[in-house]
Amino acid sequence: MVNIVPLETVLNITDVKERTSQLKRGFALHSSMLFDVSGLEQIALVILINLTWSAKDKPDDLLDKLIAKKQLANSNFLSCCVDEVAWFHTHNLKYPDIRVSMQRILSLPPNQQAKVLSSADVPMFVDWAHDAKKVNYTKLFAAEFIWHGQKCSLAKVFKEIEPEWKAAFQSMGGKVQDLKIVSDSLNRLLPPIEFPDTVDHNSPQIRMPFRDDYIALTPVISSAMLLAIQRSYALTTQLSFTRPAAVGGLVSSLGGRVKVLHYPPNLARQEQSFPQNHLGRLAEVGSILNSKVLRRKDFIALLERLSRLGYIATSRQQRIQLHTQQKLLRTIILQWLAPLFELREAIDNEPQIIEKLSAISDSSEYEFLLAPVSSLKQFVNPLFACLNNQLSNYHETQHFAFEFRLMPVLRKQIRWALSQIESASHLGDDDDMNVGYLHIKALRLFDGSALSNMYCSGIPSLTAIWGMLHHYQRELNTSLEINIRCAAFSWFIRNYSSSTETKLPEFDMAGTKQREFKRRGLIEGRYCDMTFDLVVRIEGEANELAQLANAEDALKAYLPARLAGGTLLPPPVSSSTVSWCQLHQNSATFFKDVGQLPYSGRWVLPTRKTISSVNEIADINKINRAFVPTHLGYLFLEVPKHRTGAHASQHCYAESAIGLVEFTRQIEIRMQGARNFYQRAF
């Protein structure tokens, strides 16, 4: 949200130091405050000219007209400022690698897409990136302000030679012929569209399948989107640049500290197995149920909203709100019951666990663990009473215990959860013999990039996983002489830890002619170590899938060793995951295998939710923390074409797109059943 402030309010500040500070802030490229300079064109011009002085020569008072006239009278001043307009851009090729030189992009936004966020959804913004020594010269034509109700810059008003600005220019001693030269230069240097003719060897390229061939994409970030993130109230982390003026005008105005969206997976840290953790909770609080979720802020806020539904004006609004809140409540009730569900399964495999539950042998929890599936529905009332008792134990939630507005809703969710146990693993006999599901378990990723793109930090890029699977598909097809296709995948994160260290790059050939053996420049990143499962939907002929199912050694051998810039390893030999790479062709038995994954993990699943602004991401996540932003692909900025230096016959500059995924808990997938899993995951 941009805050428009009349310039007069700052001009009335008598303290010169404070006034100068406010003026610098308002004319900074990243500022969320824009000055309305209507009627004060001459003063605005004085300020903008004085901002172009170097730090050591900059006047103490930006309103000093004599110093501004001196600067404008310099024969080289206007030409230096105009020359830097040649490096204005909409997408910064020097971000984050400043070695890309003598190239820029001026582009219209890509076509607007409903499910992803791009520069098409934010106001247009033109930035600069060139020689760091000339960063101050850019402020004359790049700084934005409000003029007659519209967002403008000197580049726009001088380009069209607006009468008021012509008068202001002349009052500073400027000549009309100089202004016409400036106007002609601005029109020449700011065409609507401009792309480089060659691909700089320092620009990244991604080789992707495209129309039965391959295309080389160079991902670029939109300056407008980057600015929107700086102004948003979403959760962020900061990337630091040691030479910010060399990266661009926006990064320079931020002091080299650039915000990126930061939404890592929220996993429970488990030092022991789940059964051991549940038994530890029993010793601590006398109950197996996960009472911690009842004290979470989002759960308390949810109960508050449900208790106020009766005060909403119309019954239709009540129904809509109730439906939305019930879906959130269902997730939390499942988390509360999860220890009971998981211990039931653990007791089937290790009956001796029941001996450690003597402390609750006379409780309904104990009876629930031993009861047959067919009789679990009779525990609705005992568990409902237990839920209310636990709510009454905490100061934050005690006023919700046995609240008459909440009782029907809470009871309904408990009843639904118990009804799902019997049908959770049921699936009809509708298997497709041309479809198989490859389950790769407990893969370990070390030093993978947690920047899915230069806007988002959290999980590695989904595109990186697609690239790995495409390479995997090619290797399997070549080695086994088959023609299978990795059609879709689902991702289950078991463990996650992040790192903010800056890594020392390796030596390689650098310099203008690639003849110098030295290290590349330091670029700060975000990295992560992960343990995860991949479930890959594979399509092919029935005989090819049968051949693949019998080639477990090949499935393991050809798994790529790299993912998202990190090292990808199989489970350790000492682990219990012996058959860690298997192809399943029976969907019911495969879902039973999926149901045994740890309840502490998170599935990364697609969602139908749409977003139209960065702040909307924050609003959605505040209501439901499961929805997080990440990289969801690329949007073409141009028609693909041949370019010198490209890694494929066709090349295209493309903008990274931000979309939402859902971090879904394993308990939800387990309880909502196989059919729901296949529909959501693939």
How does this model look, in words?
This is CRISPR-associated protein Csy2. This protein is of the alpha+beta class. Among the domains are: 3-193, no CATH class; 274-423, no CATH class. Helices cover 38% and strands 22% of the residues. It has 25 helices and 25 strands. Strands 4, 5, 9, 10, 13, 16, 19, 20, 21, 22, 23, 24 and 25 form a 13-stranded mixed beta sheet that branches. Strands 11-12-15-14 form a four-stranded mixed beta sheet, with helices on one face. A hairpin with a 5-residue loop joins β17 and β18 (516-519). It starts with a strand and ends with a helix. The model has no long low-confidence stretch (mean pLDDT 87).
Question: Would you summarize the structure shown here?
Answer:
The chain is an alpha+beta fold.
Defining traits:
682 residues; alpha+beta; 13-stranded mixed β-sheet; four-stranded mixed β-sheet; 25 strands; 22% strand; CRISPR-assoc_prot_Csy2
How far apart the termini lie comes to 37 Å
Into which percentage range does the β-strand content fall? 15-25%
> What's the pLDDT, averaged over the residues?
87
Unreliable residue stretches? none
The Rg value, from CA coordinates, equals 30 Å
Structural class: alpha+beta
Cα shape: globular
Helix content: 25-40%
